[in-house]
Structure formats: C-alpha cells, structure tokens
Amino acid sequence: MQPFVYNALPARVIFGTGTQAQVAQELQRLGCSRAIVLTTPGQVGKGKGVEKLLGDLCVGLYTRATMHTPVDITDDAVNAVQELNADCVMAVGGGSTIGLGKAIALRTDLPQIVIPTTYAGSEATPIIGQTENGIKTTQKTLKVLPEVIIYDVALTLTLPPKVSVTSAVNAIAHAVEALYSQDANPIADLLAQEGIRSIARSLPAIVTGEGGGEALLKARSDVLYGAWACAMCVGGLGMALHHKLCHTLGGTFNLPHAETHTVLLPHTIAYNAPYAPEAIAKVASSLGVINAAQGIYDLAKQLGAPYSLKELGLKEEDLGRAADIAAMSPYPNPAPLERDKLLKLLRDAWSGTRPP
Ligand code: NAD
C-alpha cells in the first residue's frame, strides 16, 4: 500500500424513497425551528411540498436560486434570511439551489439540510463556487458543508432524461478527477469506482424507461447512490484540469454546468490518460469499456446528451480566451498544462469529435 492521507468529512445521510417526510424531525434534531426553504424558479412545487411538511417550522420560501451562484442573488437571499429571522437553511434542488444554501451558510453560519434533486453532488462537498463580474472562484471550507443530506429518490423522478444524463456525467467527472488527484487515496478510489459503476449500470434504463415503474425507481436509486459516492470523493481531494475548464466555461462564458462537464469529460480524460494510465484504466473498467474517453463519449451521446461546445453556444472565437484562463494560474494535473494543447482540447470539444 502506498502512503496516503485521508480526511473523513462529517455527514449525516438519509437515503431512500419518501424520505422527505423526515424533514421536520431532522430540523428539530438540529435544534432549529425556523427554516427558510430554497429552490430555483423551476422547482417551486417541490419547495412548497417541503414547506407543507414543515408546517410552522418553515418561515419562508426563497425561489431565486441561480446557476453558478451569482453573488447578487446571494446578497438578496441573505437579506431574506435576516428579515425572516431564519435559523436553518433548507435547499431543495440541484447544485444551483444547494450552492445558494452554502453561500448563505458561509455568510451566516446557519446549519443546512439539503434535499438534492439532481446528481451534481454539491451536497457532499465542502466546496463553494461563486460568480462575480464574470469570474467564478471556488473555496473549500467546512463552513459550507451541509449538516444533513436527505436523498429522496422520488424527487428525482421528474428530472428529464436528458438532464439526468448530463447530471450523471457531472457526477462521474468528480470520480475521474479523484482517481488521478495528487491527493488520491484508497477510500476515495473505492468510492469513485463504485460510483461510476453504479451510474454506468443504471443510467441507460432512466433514458429508455425499460421495465417501467419498479425498474425505473431502482435505476433512479442506483444513479442517485452512485452520484453520492462520486461526490464523496471530491471533499478531501484537489480537482484538476477538467473542473478548472468547466469552471472557466461556466463562470466566464455562462455555459450550463452539467452539459459542459458532459461535453468536456471525454476530452479531458484523453488529455490526461497518457500521464495517469492506472487511474484511467480504473475508469474504463468501472464503465465496462476498454477506452475510458470513448466510453464516456459514446455513453452520453447514445443517451441523447450534447457532445459539442458549439451546440452549448460557445463561440469559436472564445476558445483562445478560454485556453488562456485555463493555463493562467497553475494547478496540479497529471498532464502538463500547455496552452497550445489546451486550445486543441477545447477545439476538439467545440467541434464534438470522438476522442482517440
Ligand atoms: P441546477 O441545480 O441548476 O438544476 C438544473 C435544472 O434542473 C434547473 O432548472 C432545476 O430547476 C431543474 N431541476 C432540478 N431538479 C429537478 C428535478 N428533480 N426534476 C425536474 N427538474 C429539476 O443544476 P445542477 O447541474 O444540479 O447544478 C449546477 C450548479 O451546481 C453549478 O452552479 C455548479 O457550479 C454547482 N456544483 C457545485 C458543486 C460543489 O461541490 N460545490 C458540485 C457540483 C455542482
């Protein structure tokens, strides 16, 4: 066994179907009685459902959560928290809503209960990304790690198949970068491989709807569990090129988060593969393929996900600036970060070619 350092993160995780019914109990367990429920504009219905379950324990609903956590929305939400005198933040939604909850916790120290409804995995990490003046910056602090995660598979049933695919590839990206992280360790390795396997096995059934009813619920359950396992890797480890590129494209060019991960991942794997052969072999075997980059590309494309940055709306003339930003401040990555090679990676991703 190689020497390693492993930091376990505190987490109370409740996983199942129908588990949102436990919100009031969990709130009281934290000693709280005045929750503010957060959602995106699209998920207000789910927020109202939780508000109803909480009854008098809910003091308000804030529904303006926005992708990439813009600071002006956070300021507005913190005002609402203070006006309502809330003592707990309850995020019901994907990474955007959970990001807002974390941003509030960072500024107020309020405890968080999160009910994730996508596979992005932010709920299990002590990382927050925030966007101000077109630049997305991230920081790692236990202040933003949610106290309780309630995974309720029933709430993921409405996630459209196409969004489910990109969100699940976003989860796989965490596991891939954990496997070749400079802080890699055997526990994160196990979680990463388990997460990728669980997602790859069950994602197709979510799209085809094969088996219907019970089978679909089982597939949703597998993918949500896999997403949690993948997210658990991120916490203690440093992410590398793939996440840096996604943050650049998201923060500076406002590209959608999960779709950007999906388009880029095959290309970032191909870029790093020669320098991290063992890690990439683990990705391939967890996917059940020979070539990990092609395996991700084929899986996502066959399931209807976007596969080029062009279709996400990035302009060809912005590729150079994106490569400049990605090469700007050095960070650990298996392959050297050379601007010309990064530009080629971005060009391939822009046109959507199948990686070698
Ligand atoms: P999202 O939260 O914006 O959700 C995408 C869309 O799906 C939204 O319109 C939302 O309303 C809708 N939606 C969510 N759940 C649904 C459901 N069950 N049924 C139907 N529609 C649903 O997107 P995301 O990809 O989950 O999260 C992206 C954000 O999370 C980005 O800002 C990203 O930076 C952040 N993120 C952070 C971390 C971290 O560790 N800090 C990790 C992953 C993602």
Automatic annotation (TrEMBL):
Gene3D superfamilies: 3.40.50.1970, Dehydroquinate synthase-like - alpha domain. CDD domains: MAR. The keyword Oxidoreductase applies. Residues 165-350 form the Fe-containing alcohol dehydrogenase-like C-terminal domain. GO terms for molecular function: alcohol dehydrogenase (NAD+) activity; maleylacetate reductase activity; metal ion binding. Residues 10-152 form the Alcohol dehydrogenase iron-type/glycerol dehydrogenase GldA domain. The keyword Transferase does not apply. Keywords: NAD, Oxidoreductase. InterPro entries: ADH_Fe/GldA, ADH_Fe_C, Alcohol_dehydrogenase_Fe, MAR. Belongs to the iron-containing alcohol dehydrogenase family. This is Maleylacetate reductase. It comes from Sphagnurus paluster.
